[in-house]
Amino acid sequence: MNEKTLIKACKNAEVSALKILYERYYATMFGVCLRYVRNKADAEDLVQEGFMKVFKDIGSFEGKGSFEGWLRRVIINNTLTYLRKTKREFAHDDIETIAENEADDIEPDEITIESKIKNRDFTKEELIEIIQSLPQGYQQVLNLYIVDGFKHYEIAKMLNISEGTSKSQLNRGRKLAVKKLYQKACENSAGFEMDFDPIKFEEYER
Question: What architecture is domain 100-185?
Answer without folding.
Answer: Orthogonal Bundle (1.10)
